[in-house]
Amino acid sequence: MPFKFKFILSILIFGVFALTGQYELSHDLSRPAYVAFFLAVFMVLSIWIFPDVSRDAPEREGGTQ
Amino acid sequence: MELQHSCMSDRQRRYRKEYRYRVAGWYHGWLHLMIIAMSGIAAIYIYTSNLVSVQWRDWLALPLGFLSYQLAEYLLHTQTMHRPRKSPMLRALYIRHTLMHHQFFTEQEMRFADHRDWRVTFFPPFTMIVLTLLSLAPSLTAGLIISPNFGWLLMTALTGSYMFYEVVHFCCHVDDNWLVRNLPIINTARRHHQAHHDQALMMEVNMGIGTPIFDWLLGTSDLDRGFFGHLFNGYSSKYLKKNLRRTSRTPKPGNVKIPESRTDAH
Q1: What is the DSSP letter of B79?
Q2: In this predicted structure, what is the pLDDT of residue B254?
Q3: ipTM reported for the complex, 2 dp
Q4: B166-192 pLDDT, tens per residue?
Q5: Which string of b and e fits B145-178 if b means at least 16 CB within 10 Å?
Q6: What is the C-alpha to C-alpha distance for residues B90 and B99, in angstroms, rounded to an integer?
């Protein structure tokens, strides 16, 4: 996935879950708030570390494309 | 690693080998599954924690969300994953799905060889993020107009439907066993989806993956029977349509330019 796309998604997800966490805290729901903060970090980390599929085909082994 | 006993063609065997070569060495299918499950369960926990004094009308958000997801999945599959579009992003979806996923799995061989092949079937983690962001507008609107409970339950239904889709699609590509053969919905989906992987039918037939509801409703199913018959058809081939139009096969990969940086398949 292109860097720009990952970056925009990361900002959006941090923003959304920060607001969600604040909303939860304002309603005395501390556990869901912490889960929201954790989920934001977890989701963002997962898109940055998750391996993309390489573009290189094994030509010497007889690739199909 | 490849399946030892398989009737797949040499072309499919070569493609599977090539795709596996492209997947990073440290990819682990169980880790991928854990990321999807943890994200989905945590998100649903947050949404349901906000429910207070739920009224009967609020529960309607669950079937509404489920059906909306089924329709969205059907339209995305029909209109972009099997139709090349001018937009680069939509065209990438077509390439990844029709030219890659449908080469990796054909009606001759639908099975994973091991957990590393799950990369071809589970969507990457960003899908849950995109789904969450897309769910926000309708859920916030419904929450403001109808009730906050309705909005939270709509988010729950959409996230749950995505997880349901991943489970069902995964079950379509595992080896046959007693459980998947006898589990309602799952056994229906397996036959339905295997017929969709027939390259002569895949462009128009059995486009729903989680359920065949919209194939039944919009006439794109390969079965000639009613709603409940569609849902609980299982492996039966008794009601197959006899006059299905067998459309053109997968476009030759050489005829479509594949962007070098986009080679995921789903």
Answers
A1: I
A2: 46
A3: 0.83
A4: 999 999 999 999 999 999 999 999 999
A5: ebbbbbbbbbbbbbbbbbbbbbbbbbbbbbeeee
A6: 13
Q: Is residue A59 part of a domain?
A: no
Q: Give B 5-34 residues with CB within 8 A of chain A.
A: 11, 14-15, 17-19, 21-24, 26-27, 32
Give CA–CA dist A9/B131, Å, rounded. 11
User: pTM for this structure?
Assistant: 0.87
Q: Which of B15, B26, B46 sits opposite A35 (nearest CB)?
A: B46
Number of domains comprising chain A = 1
Domain that holds residue A24: 3-48
- Contact yes or no for A65 and B253 at CB 8 A: yes
Q: CA angle, corner A27, sides to A23 and A33, nearest 5?
A: 55
- Token pair, residue B218, equals 């919009």
Q: What is the residue-wise DSSP string for B80-149?
A: IITS--SSHHHHHHHIIIIIIIHHHS-SS----SSGGGGGGTSPPTHHHHHHHHHHHHHHHHHHHHT-HH
Place of tokens 């709603």: B227
Q: Is A3 on the interface with B (CB under 8 A)?
A: no
d(CA A32, CA B48) in angstroms, rounded, equals 9
Mark out the alpha helices in B173-261 (DSSP H runs). 178-182, 186-196, 213-218, 227-231
Q: What is the pLDDT of residues B65-85, one digit of tens each?
A: 999 999 999 999 999 999 888
Alpha carbons A24 and B174: distance in angstroms, whole number: 40
Residues whose CB is less than 8 angstroms from the CB of residue B173 and which lie 6 or more positions away in sequence, other chains included: B105, B110, B111, B112, B117, B121
What does the alpha-carbon distance between residue B193 and residue B108 come to, in Å, rounded to a whole number? 12
